[in-house]
User: What shape does this take?
Amino acid sequence: MDSPRILIIPGSARDGSLNRRLAAVAAATARAAGLQVTEMDLRALALPVYDGDLEAASGVPAGAHELRQAIATSDGVLIVTPEYNGFPTPLVINAFDWLSRIPPGDGQAGGLAATANKPAALLSASPGPLGALRSMNFLRQYLQMAFAMLVVPQQFALGRANEAFDGEGALKDARAAQSVEKVIAALATLARAMPTPR
Assistant: This one.
């Protein structure tokens, strides 16, 4: 595999989101490293809050199928999430909860099959000093245990993120930029090491 396909998912969609800004830095870093990058807006998937009655009445929403397809056709997934009360955002958890409900059919893998053994990596950003580290650690457990994703050990939490970007959207601190590069490199290395899907 010469150029892994990386799917980047910000865990916040709001205007001015620090994690969207960090995701943009990651995307630019990945492209500079020769990777193919797709960026996904979870809010654009228009997923309602998961409800078993809604699923029974209407099935799994189209947005969840779009997420499944994006993950299935990627070689690695990078999630960049803030912290809501010490936990990953409802936007991320709800999207993956819906994803888990997709059964196989029409020659397509189910949601859990699409994530199984898929390389993943994590970044986070917060105005606080820990940089949303707690949410990353919860998300690591969630993705590994519930979705069988292979989350690389390397991760980076950007603290004081409200002061971390320059006017062009780049990271001011060279060490922070290098930390993002290391996470991207680890994800790319694992993606290259995985068997090519049939």
